[in-house]
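[job 4471] stage=fold_predict status=RUNNING
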Amino acid sequence: MKPLIVGNWKMNPTNQREAKMLFELIKKGVKNIKNVETVICPASLYLPLFKGLPLGGQNCSWEEKGTYTGEVSALMLKDIGAEYVIIGHSERRKHFQETDEDVNRKVKKAIHAGLRVILCIGESFEEREKNETKDILKSQLAAALNGVTEVKNLNVAYEPIWAISTGDPYTTKELPTVEKIEKIFLYIQGLLVSMYGQEGTKDIRIIYGGSANSQNAGGYLKEAKMQGLLVGGASLNADEFIKIVKAAI
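[job 4471] inference complete, writing structure tokens
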């Protein structure tokens, strides 16, 4: 499998002109990189503006259609050109009170629609300090995938909440060490194998998210064995994001 590098633009940029400029710069910078899958997840209303790289949504509804003002369904994302969707991001859990049950329902709808899911799991600072990391990951993964039998389009993103940048992508909080991330990679891999078997998990990529940048990308990918990165703030800087993609080669 190719490494998966995902740019999560969150609620940025604030206008079409800047969004188009950023996308075109990234597309130009990675066009000759064939052995890395580069995905951009902009705000959903920007999706029709972009061509030339795989695209993803940042969220989707657990319903297909109907009287759900403000929601965007997985079918709509698929129809508008998205191939991926991020589900269960810590910001959705925190700011919009999404529960594990909500995440599970969204995962099922996204897979049914033919989207490739980027499922986010991760512990808070308080949970880490209580040595609850493994318990939290196991609980979130089991809940999110409850009743999910088709996982060939699944990617699992480990994003420790305490490491996620909320502003300048070059000024981050404490970051997990390469050794810590390798252990987490192996733990999540083991959980997935226990759920779906060795053969059933051969197409699942486990990626890292949490203040990923060009300085730490190589270590997380090559030494910690992560199969990709979910990049937040650093994906809003074309030069920085291109460096991260190149680190995956």
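[job 4471] summary: Residues 168-172 have pLDDT under 50 and may be disordered.
[job 4471] exit 0
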